[in-house]
Amino acid sequence: MDIDARIKRRQRRDEGPRLIQDYESLSPVAHIDEPSDRGPVFERLLDHLDPVFDGVLPPNAYVHGEFGSGKSAIVTALFAHLQRLSTEPRSVIHTSTRAASPTTPGFVYLDTRTTTSEFAFYHAVLDALVEDPVPEHGISTEELRERLHAILGESRNGIVVAVDHVGEPNSVDTAGLIDLFAGLPSNVSWLAVGRTPPEHTGLTTYTATSITIPPYQRQMLVDVLMTRASEGLTQRALDHDLARRIAEWADGNAHSALAALFIAADRADRADRTRLCGADVDAAIAEIPDVSVSLAEVLSLPVNKQLVLRRLVDLDDDERASVSATTETISADVDLSIGTVKRFLYEMAETGIVERVQAESHDGKGRPPSRVELRFPPTAFRRLHGLRQ
């Protein structure tokens, strides 16, 4: 927990007992500076990146693992530390065998869920390399590329770019990734991060190695949950038995485990309790779909699509009986036409954010109607979306 969070906790002392002290610490879409119990994974990544400590770019690589294995948490934490260290005047590592202190390459982290276009990609890279903000309007993609070539052309050591969520439905695919890096100078190395095994990506031609991130072991997940609870909840709000129940159900998926903790804490907080109980955990687990998507992926959608989802999660069964009924109800409450709402729902069904399910019974002729089902827990989305407004 950072100093600001500690101060806020003291400021709330006079408000009486309160279960949730800091939503950000509980959030399943937030990453902490030091992910728990992942030392061996960090070592494998540092083994690959080791040339940078001599001022040399490493070869391209691919980091992969299942949904919820902590890939993003690990890579963002590592690159945040490397970014800070690369700006220091001396080398990151200094040993008796390295008398000199070479300048290290720069480090850039990109999330392809929010940088899907060529313009957005080059803008994000450039913005990470310069002190003044890069304008988002009045500048062309070609100008961004030219500025990047000029800046990197003056760099002695180049940069390493981590590109997260490659190959997901709402991000950049392998071919697109290769094309984007083809527009950058040769002193750029990249670390692609995705869920698909390397042999199914087409990346093996462009990478020297692949690094597997294994799912969390059960005790690791218990530690993660207890750490987050200690930072986000009042003291002794979560006992180890409940943490073990969540970890056993999550089966190595940290996102699912943290989502369950988040929902259970929200339920207990709304009931004005200062400790979680078994019913809170059971309700949270029941709310999370068997096949679900990352809440971070949902929250990275364009504003209007999130607006449609925010209304969708509050609809009752009658209002969700068919896609037509759903679109009519939602469009009556938002500043979007029925056609636009329906198109959004179909697009989100194609990318797995929601699912179109055919009605079990149908009295009329023709094809039975379909309804829209969520692929994410509504309580977590409702709360996280509200916190961002």
TrEMBL record:
Source superkingdom: Archaea
Residue ranges of domain Orc1-like AAA ATPase in the record: 38-183
InterPro entries: AAA_16, P-loop_NTPase
SUPFAM superfamilies, alphabetized: P-loop containing nucleoside triphosphate hydrolases
Any Pfam family: AAA_16
Gene3D superfamilies, A to Z: 1.10.8.60, P-loop containing nucleotide triphosphate hydrolases
Protein name: Orc1-type DNA replication protein
Gene name tied to this protein: orc6
